[in-house]
Amino acid sequence: MKKFGVFTVSAISTFCFLFGFSPLKVHATTVSMDFVGVGGENSGGVYTYPYYFKINGGPEVPLMCVSYLQEIQVPETWQATITTIGTATPSLTVTDEEEDAYLDSVVLNSGSSAQTVSDAQWAAWEVGDSGLIGHLPGGLNDAAITAEYDAAVSFVSTHTLANDPNFYDGFELYVPVPGSQSPVWDGLPQTFIGPAPTPEPNSLFLLGSGLLAAAGALYRRNRQTA
Question: Which of 9, 164, 176, 187 could pair with 159 in a Cys bridge, judged by C-beta atoms 3.0 to 4.6 Å apart?
Answer without folding.
Answer: 164
